[in-house]
Amino acid sequence: MSAQDTPAPVFEVVHLAKNFGGLRVTNDVSLSLRPGDRMALIGPNGAGKTTFVNLVTGALKADAGEVRLNGESVNRLDPIGRVRRGLVRSFQVTRLFLEMTPAEHVALAVLQRTGRSGRMFGNFRAMPDVMEEVEEQLVALGLHDLMHRKVREIAYGQQRLLEIAIALALKPRVLLLDEPAAGVPQSDTGRIEQALAGLPASLAVLMIEHDMDLVFRFAKRVVVLAAGAVIFDGLPADVARDDRVREAYLGSYAHAGHAA
Amino acid sequence: ETVKVGVIGPFSGPFALQGKNFKAGIDAWFATHGNKVGNDTIEVIYRDVPQPDPAQSKSAAQELVVKEKVQYLAGFYFTPDAMAVTPILKQANVPMVVMNAATSAIVTKSPLVVRTSFTTWQTSTPMAKVAYDQGIRKVISVVSDYGPGVDAENAFKTAFTALGGQVVETVRMPLSTNDFSPIMQRVKDSGAQAVFAFLPSGPTTLGFVKAFNENGLKSGGIKLLAPGDLTQESDLPALGDAALGMLTTFHYSVAHDSPENKAFVEAARKAIGNPVELSFPAVAAYDGMYVITKMIAATGGKPDAQKAVDAVKGLAWVSPRGPVSIDAESRHITENIYLREVAKAADGTYYNKEIATFEKQDDPGLKAAP
Amino acid sequence: MDRTMTAPLAAAAGRPALGAGPLAFALLLALAGLGYLLFPDNLALLTRLIAIAFLVLSLDLVTGYCGVATLGHAALYGAGAYAAGIASARYGIEDPLAMTGIGLVGGALAGLVCGVVILRAHGLPQLVLSIALVYLFHEFANKASGWTGGSDGLSGVTTGPLFGRFEFDLYGHTAYLYAVGLLLLTLIVLRLLVRSPFGMLCRGIKEDPVRIQAMGASPKAALLKMYVISGAVAGIGGALNAISTQVVALDSLSFTQSAEALVMLVLGGTGSLFGALVGTVVFTLFEDFVSAANPFHWLTVVGLLLIATVLFAPKGLYGTAADWIARRRARP
Amino acid sequence: MQTVLSIGVDALAYGMVLFVISIGLSVTMGLMRVTNLAHGAFAMIGGYIASYAARDLGLGYGVAVLLAVVGTVAIAIPIERLLYRRIYGAPELTQVLMTIGITFCIIGIANYVFGPTLKTIPLPQTLREPVDLGFRTIGAQRVFAIVCGLAVAAALWFLIEKTRFGVKLRASVDNAAMAAALGVRTQVVYAVSFAAAVGLAAFGGVVGAELLPVEPYYALRYMVTFLVVVSVGGTGSIPGALLACLLLSAIDTTGRYLSPEYGEFFFYLAVIAIVCLFPRGLIARAK
Amino acid sequence: MPATPLEVEDLSAGYGPTRVLEGVSFAVPAGARLAVLGRNGMGKTTLLASLAGQTKRYGGRIRLGGADITPLSTASRAHAGLGYVPQTRAIFPSLTVEENLSVGLKERPLSALEEAYALFPRLKERRRNLGTQLSGGEQQMLSTARTILGRPTVLLLDEPLEGLAPVICEELMEAFAELARTGDTTILLVEQRIQMALDFADHVIVLERGRLAWSGTPQALTADQDTVERLLGVGGLH
Ligand SMILES: Nc1ncnc2c1ncn2[C@@H]1O[C@H](COP(=O)(O)OP(=O)(O)OP(=O)(O)O)[C@@H](O)[C@H]1O
Ligand SMILES: Nc1ncnc2c1ncn2[C@@H]1O[C@H](COP(=O)(O)OP(=O)(O)OP(=O)(O)O)[C@@H](O)[C@H]1O
Ligand SMILES: [Mg+2]
Ligand SMILES: [Mg+2]
Known about the structure:
Chain C is an all-alpha fold. Chain C is 74% helix and 0% strand.
C-alpha cells in the first residue's frame, strides 16, 4: 500500500502483548486502521481476538505495547476516556440492561454522546432530536416494533442487533465489532450489513466474525490471529490461499470457495 | 371520673423484660391497693418504645396527651426517651414520673418531673466507701461506653479519690463487646486490687463475669465491685456460681427483708408470671404508682400538673426497698443504698443478700453536674 | 411512524401504572389531608412517619435506582438530624427553614463521605462497608458527647415559629403541615430526577456498569452524585425529625434504623418513589397498631407480614400492585 | 511479651468461636447465594435446645450437642421447603426481607416459649477446668472450640471442593436451570446443603454459647458480626472465612486491649480497609 | 423398530403471561436429525426449552421413548435421556472446565471426561481454567461436550455452532452426525445458517410465530423456494 494518498491511521496498535498466567494470549500484535477501513479479524477459537479488543479498549491492561488514537497514545486513558475519544466496541456476549427498553438503550447512548446524560430534569422522549435518532437507529436494525418492550422479553437474535445499534448510536470514529452476527439468523444478517454499509465513510471498522460469508462481503482487509500472533494480514482474496490460515481456521470453507 | 396514666417503656424487643417489670410493679400496686383514689378510677395506658428512640417516645407521649387525654406520664426506661418528653410537659399540663431512666439531669429539665427510681451516681457512690473500708487503695474502673457507664465511672472515681484511694486506670468499652478476655488482661496488667465495673443488665454481664473468673482474676484475689445492674435478679440464674460472692451496691434487692417487700414481691411475682424475671424496675413502678395516687388525691383528679407535683415534694413513706422520700428541691427519690453479696439460698437459687446499709442517700450526681 | 401502536405497549412495559404524574400527587395530597382529618390526635406519629419516609425515599434513590446495597443509610439521616439539632442547640439557629437547610447540607456531606467509601465495592462487601460506616458514625456521635449529648441524646433543641408565625406546638399541626409540604416538594423534584436522563443512566448502572462504561459514561461519578443527592434527601428527613421532636439521639444513625428503612423499602417495592412511600406507611402504621394492640408479640406479627410479602407480593406491595394493573391494562 | 502471647491466645480462641458459628452462613451465602440473615436464629435455636436438654433434662453435653444439631435441622427443613425454596435465586433484597421476617418470628416464638432471660448450657467437668498454658490459663471450653473449628473447616472444605456433591452444589447455584438440564436434582442438593448449613449454625451456637450467650435477641444482636466476618473472608470460601475470623479477632482483641474506648473504631476501620483492599473478600471464590 | 424417541403433541408454551408456542406437534424417528428453522424470535429456543422443561406449559404432551414426560421436572427429563444445550451456553462460571464437564457426567466415573477431550482437545488444555475465563468459542465447546457426556438419547442443540471457527464447525457437525449414526441419538438442531442445517438434517420443521409452519425433508424445502423466502427470509438455497 502506498502511503501518499491514504490518510494517516486513526487507530494504531504497536507491539501489543498480554499473558494470562503462562498463556500468551496476545503476542506482539501490531496493526492499524485508517478512516474508511473495513477490516476483519478472524482466527480460531481462543486465538485472542476478544482479548485484543479488551486490551485496546482498556478493559484489560496490556503487558506491553501501545495503543494510539489519532496518533496519540491512549495507554494512560481508562476505558471511558477511550470511548470518549471515539473508540467504541460491541460485546460478543451481549451486555444489555434487561429491565430497560431498546429505546432507552439507544437514547442513553445518544444522550451520552451529546453530553446530556447527566441532566437531572426532562425526559428523552420529550427531546425531539434524541427521539429522532433513536427511531432511526432502531428502524435500521429492524427493532422498531420492539422499541418499548423490556429487553428481557426479546429474543436473543434481536438483542444482538440492539448491541450493534448502541455502538452505532455512539457515532464512533473507530468501531470494534466482536462477532456482531453470531446468534443473528441469516435472514437478519442483511440488516447488519446494511447498517454497516450506511456508516459514514470516514469511520474505521474492525469486525471479528466467524461467518465467513459475511466476512468476505464486508472486509477490504483481513487479519488472521492464531495463538495470539498475527499470521496473515492482507486482502480477502489472498486469505483462502494461505496454507496456515486454511489449516488453522478455514478448513474446507476455503475449498468450497467463496462468493468472489 | 377516670384518671388516665400513660406509661411508656420497652414492652417488646431486647429490653422487654424491663417493660414487663414496669407492668408487674403497676399491677402489683393495683392488686394490693386497688385502682381507686377517692371517687377517681385510675386507668393505665401502655405505649411501647422498644429501644432508646426519643422521637418515638415523644410522639407516643404526644399521642397519649392529645388523643388519650392522659393526666400523668410515667415509665421511661431510657434516659433519652425521658429527655425527649420533658419539653412538652408544661404545655400539656402533665407531670412525669420517671420509673427508671437513671441520668441525674432529667429532673432539671422540667419542674414537672419526679423520679422514683435511682441514679447511677446514687448507686455507684457508696461502693467507693465499701472498697476503701476493705483496705483497697488501687482500683481499675471498667465501664460500658455510654451515658450510665460514664456516670458510674465518674461517681466512683469522685468518691474514691475523695477518700484517698486511687483509680489507676479507667477503661470504657463498647457496648457491643462480647469477648472480655483482653479487658481482663488489661485489668491484670494494671496492678489494681479491685475492678469497679458497670455494664447494663443483659447478656453481656454473663460473659464479663465468666471472663473475670476464667482469666484467673477471681482466683488471683482481685475483687469485682459493681452497682447492682450487674447482678440483676433475672440474670442471676444464668450467672450462677460464677457470681457467688460478688459485691454490689444498689437500691433494691428482691430479697430485701421487710413485710412491705414480702407483700410486694408476692403480688409482683404473680403479675409477672415467671418469678425469676422480677427485678428492680418493678419497685420503682410500684412506688411511682404510690406517688401518682398521692398526686391524684391532691388535685382531686383534676388536671393541674404543678399542684400535683408540689403535693408530693417532701413526701416520705416506707417502700418495699425501705424508707424513702421525695426530695423537695430536686424531686428525686432519697433512699437507702445497700451493699449486697450474691449468695445461694437453701433451695439452690441465687439472690442478692443485703449485708450493709447506707441510709438516706440523695443523688450526688446533681451536685457534680457542671 | 406507528407511535400510536407502541404507546399502549409502553404502559405495559412495567412503568408504574400509578406513576401518571399530577394525578398521583393529587392523590397523595388527598391522603395527607385524610390523615389530618382521620388522625387529628396522632399527628406526631404521622410527622415521624414522614420523616422516616424521607429516609426510605433517599435509600430508594441509591438502592432502587442505582443498585447500591446498603444497610447503613441512617448515617445520612442521622447526620442531617444532628446537623440541624446542633445548629439549634449550640448555635441558636431556630428557624425551621434554616434548620432544614442545614440538615440538607449535613446529609449531603455525609452522603459524599459514605459514597466515596461505599462505592469502592459491590454486592455483599458493599453491604458490609455500609454497616461499618454506620457504626463508625454512631461511635463518633457517641464519643463526641460534648456536641451530641452522647447516648443521652441531644436535648435543648428549640424550634422557632414557621415563617415567624406558626408555632410548633404540642398538637403538632404546624409540624405535620410543614412535613407534608416538604414531602410533596421533594417528591416533585425526585420525580423529575428519576425520569431525567440522569435517572435513566443510574438505572443502567444498576444493571450493568461495564456496559455504561462502554458507552463512555462514568458509573462512579454518577453514583457519587446520586449518593450526595440521596444524602440531601435523608438530611431533610433528619432535620424534620429534629425540628418536630426537638431531640436527636443515637438511634437516628444506628444500624437498626438503617435496617428498618431497608425493610420498609423492600416491603413497598424498590425502584419507585411510591413504593418507598407505601412501604413506609404500611410498616410504620402496622407497627404502631400491632404494638399498641399487643406490645408483647408484635415482632412475630411483623415477621409474618414480611414473610407474607415475599410470598405473595415478591416485588413489594406497590411494585406487585403496579405490575398487576399494568398486566390488566395490557390485556385487550 | 507475655501480654502479646496472651492476646494472641485470646484472639485465636475468639476467632475460632466466630468461625464455628459463621461458617454455615458462608455456605448459605457463598454457595447457595442466599443472604440468610436468619442464620443467627438457627444458631440460637440450637442453643435453646442444648440448654433445655442439658440444663432442664439433665442430659450429657455430648447428647445435648447432638440433639441441638438434629433438632435444629428438623425445625429448619420444613422452613426450607415452605419458605427458603421460594427465594433461591431471588434478588438479594427480597432474601433480606424474607430472612429478617423469619428471624423476627423465631425471636418472637423463642421469647414466648423460653422467656426473655439468658440461657446457659452446663459444661461437663472436663470443659470447665481452666487449662494452664504456662504463661496463663484459658478455659478448656475455648480449646474445645478451637479444635471444633479446625475440624469443621477441614471437613467442609473437603466436601465442597473435592466431592461430586460440592460440584453439583456450586453448579446449581451458578445456574439452576442448566444444572437441572444436566440431571442435577437441584432441590435435593439445596435441601441437603441448607440442612448442613443450619446444622453447622446450631453446632456453632452451642459451642460458642460461652462467649455469645443464648437469649432471644441473639439472632439480631450478632447478625452483623456474622455477616461481616463472612463477607470479609469472601463468601463461600472456607479458608477465607477462617482467615477473616482470625484476622478480625486479632484486630478486635488487640484494639480492645490497647484502647477499648476506641475498640469499635479499630474494628470497623479495619473492616473498611480490608474490604477496600480486597473488594471481593480476602480469599474470593471466583464468580 | 423401538418406540418413537420423541413425540410432541399440541404443545403450547411461553413465559409467564406471554404465550409463545401454539399447538406444535411433531414426531422424530430414532437416530433422526431434525433441523428446527425459523426467523428471529419465532420460538425456536422456546420450543427446545419447553422440551427440556424450562418454560411454562399451557397445554399439550411430550413423550420420550413412548413414555409421557410432560409432568417430569427438568432433572428427571435429563435422567430420562434428554440432553439440552441452550443457546446462551450457560457455563457455570465458578466451576473449572473439568468441573463443568463433570456435572454432565451424571453418575459416570470421572475417567469418562476423556471422551470430551477427544472431541475438543482445546478443552483439555484449559481444563483447570474457570468457565468465565474461556473464549466465546471455547465456552460453546464446553457447553456441548458437557451435555454429550450425559449420553442423551435425544439431544437438543440450540445454535451450537455460534461463534465457532469454520474448521471446528465442520468437525462438530461430523461428530453430531456420528453420534446420530452410531449412538442412536436423535438430534434436534437449531441453526441460523440454513444451508449448514439442511446439509446435516434428514428432516426439517420451520416455526413461524410460535406455530409449526412447514415440515418435510431438506430436499423438499430447497425445492420450495417460495416457502424458504416467506418463512426464512432468504432467497437462493441450492
Ligand atoms: N481471564 C483469563 N484468564 C485466563 N485465561 C484467559 C482469560 N481470559 C481469556 N483467557 C484465555 O485466553 C484465550 C483467548 O481468549 P479470547 O477470548 O481472546 O479468544 P477469541 O479469539 O475471542 O476466541 P473466540 O473466537 O472463541 O471468541 C482463550 O484460550 C481463553 O481461555
Ligand atoms: N423470558 C421471556 N419472557 C417473555 N417473552 C419472551 C422471553 N423470551 C423470549 N420471549 C419471546 O418469545 C418469542 C420467541 O423467542 P425465542 O427465543 O424462542 O426465539 P428464537 O426463535 O429462538 O429466536 P432467535 O433466533 O433470536 O434465537 C420472542 O418474540 C420473544 O420476544
Ligand atoms: Mg471472542
Ligand atoms: Mg433462539
